[in-house]
């Protein structure tokens, strides 16, 4: 089994576990991002309060709306990303060693090379998996009301949908989301938001650049200590992954909001602030109707969700890689011993 395949499978496994743990936060955050509020809107509810309202008004299942396609998307996305990342990383390491043999550099992959490797992997991942995330966004922002709302209770609903509180809407599953997207824009509708998503490749690129840099420094410090051990514990991987994701999220969050707006359900009639023709139209209308605040809606929720998810993913992925390599090494040694025995 190749090292790239091991990393790809481990990334998929870590991504699924991280998604299961943080999915309710992701659902609430997507709703926060897609809410079209005017500049003078009242202060919104906090994350926990919004989660409580979703459960009270729509039931626990709405916090997990779109979970099935999201898990498929996570497995495909993380698997593809880590697979291509390891392939490009191996090539970068070979190139670095070639330069060292020529008397250039120290033989290690630099920050810029790490950034390029992550960016290339991210672009391939986005182009392959964007349709899945369009479906997930639709299912996360679709709302239902199972009860008649109590007086004075503020409903958390997608602003571009009209919901009659006294009626029970029909179920909204993956097939319904697919039909809705195709009905609006045809096949190309599944690549809505792909431009800001491609630009968002800078998020994991920055994340991996920070992670690899911090990891390299920690290993170097560990190796230079008296014990000379450069091994990294699961907790240290968790903390490095969290720190790297925090820095990347703060820098790229506005693009994430624009992407979610484009992938959520669009309406052609009524208030034009609810309909976006494209990336630049969305940016222009958000600035006009909501101000700069619109680009940072739900940022605190996203930071908590994404940092926790990234930390869990990195920790589990690295442990799975270690376990797989150890298992393969033991198998190889066992085969060697068996072959060496005389018949």
TrEMBL record:
Cited Pfam families: Mito_carr
Annotated protein name in UniProt: Peroxisomal nicotinamide adenine dinucleotide carrier
Keywords: Membrane, Repeat, Transmembrane, Transmembrane helix, Transport
Membrane disposition: Multi-pass membrane protein
Transmembrane spans: 109-128
Classification via PANTHER family: MITOCHONDRIAL NICOTINAMIDE ADENINE DINUCLEOTIDE TRANSPORTER 1-RELATED-RELATED
Gene3D superfamilies per UniProt: Mitochondrial carrier domain
Protein species of origin: Tetracentron sinense (Spur-leaf)
Protein family: Belongs to the mitochondrial carrier (TC 2.A.29) family.
PROSITE patterns for this protein: SOLCAR
InterPro entries: MCP_dom_sf, MCP_transmembrane, SLC25A32-like
Cellular-component GO terms for this entry: membrane
Solcar repeats, residue ranges: 2-91, 109-217, 232-323
GO BP, sorted A to Z: nucleotide transport; transmembrane transport
Coiled coil regions in record: none
Keyword Transport tagged: yes
Compartment annotation: Membrane
């Amino acid at each position: 089994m190749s090292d790239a395949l091991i990393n790809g499978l481990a990334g998929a496994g870590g991504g699924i576990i991280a998604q299961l743990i943080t999915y309710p936060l992701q659902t609430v955050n997507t709703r926060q991002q897609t809410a079209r509020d005017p500049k003078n809107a009242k202060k919104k509810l906090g994350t926990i309060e919004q989660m409580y309202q979703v459960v009270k008004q729509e039931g626990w299942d709405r916090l997990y709306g779109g979970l099935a396609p999201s898990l498929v998307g996570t497995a495909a996305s993380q698997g593809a990303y880590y697979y291509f990342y390891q392939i490009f990383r191996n090539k970068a390491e070979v190139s670095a060693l070639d330069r060292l043999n020529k008397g250039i550099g120290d033989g290690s992959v630099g920050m810029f090379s790490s950034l390029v490797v992550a960016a290339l992997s991210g672009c391939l991942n986005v182009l392959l998996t964007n349709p899945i995330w369009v479906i997930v966004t639709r299912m996360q922002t679709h709302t239902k009301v199972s009860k008649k709302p109590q007086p004075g209770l503020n409903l958390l609903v997608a602003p571009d949908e009209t919901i009659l509180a006294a009626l029970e809407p029909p179920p909204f599953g993956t097939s319904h989301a697919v039909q809705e997207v195709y009905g609006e824009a045809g096949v190309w509708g599944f690549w809505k938001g792909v431009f800001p998503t491609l630009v968002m490749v800078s998020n994991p690129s920055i994340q991996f650049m920070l992670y690899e840099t911090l990891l390299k420094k920690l290993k170097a410090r560990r190796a230079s200590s008296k014990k000379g051990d450069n091994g990294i514990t699961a907790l240290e991987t968790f903390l490095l992954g969290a720190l790297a994701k925090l820095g990347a999220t703060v820098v790229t969050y506005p693009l994430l909001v624009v992407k979610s707006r484009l992938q959520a359900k669009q309406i052609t009639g009524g208030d034009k602030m609810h309909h976006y023709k494209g990336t630049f139209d969305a940016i222009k209308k958000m600035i006009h109707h909501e101000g700069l605040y619109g680009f940072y809606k739900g940022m605190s929720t996203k930071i908590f969700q994404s940092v926790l998810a990234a930390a869990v993913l990195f920790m589990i992925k690295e442990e799975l890689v270690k376990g797989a390599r150890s298992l393969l090494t033991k198998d190889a040694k066992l085969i060697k011993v068996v072959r060496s025995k005389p018949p």
